[in-house]
Design a protein that fits this description.
It is built from 7 helices and 11 strands. By secondary structure, it is an alpha/beta fold. The strands form 3 sheets. It has a 6-stranded mixed β-sheet, sandwiched between helices. A hairpin with a 5-residue loop joins strand 8 (124-126) and strand 9.
Amino acid sequence: TELAGPGLVLAQSTFARPEYPPLPHVVGEAQAILAAQHGGLKSGGLKLLQPTPSAWEAVLQEEGERPFSRYGWLHIATHASADPETGAFSGLLLGTEVVHLEEIQGWRLKAGLVTLSACQTGMGRWYYGDEVAGLLESFLGAGARAVVVSLWLVNDEETAEFMRTFYTHLGAGMRPLAALTEAQRGAFRAGLEPYYWATFSFFGQP
């Protein structure tokens, strides 16, 4: 999968809901990604969302009728939202809104890569008689050719450093799967516990 066209980083570090703790390293993660633009990685910008009702609405208004369809890659750093009754991850927290799976499925993405930098974004819920439904399936269904997700809880600080390395490899011209693999090999060689880097998995076209 080639990353053609500009990319967008959506990042939110503080939240209005008390059950969602701050993510103090998210801003540094986003800035490190933008600093890795050399080579084939180009950015259309960074949107730092505030925990206000208008934050997500303003993003959608700016995007127009086909939100995010012009981007070759998307990086979203925030909390995944879980259904309080079932515990299933049902969306992403952006502004004060939970952007649910159904809304994501309605996007018309052309992105070669979507990276979901949040806890357990690769987890879904099995619906009897149907397939697993989750963030991964929603982004692939919306048109993303590849998605990087996490399979368990992630550490805010270590994730920021890992993503900096991942996007540095992307910026040097590596394809996403190769860039993720090399970032994980680097973390292993550096002696970092697998808990911090083995959570990230690649799904889609290599």
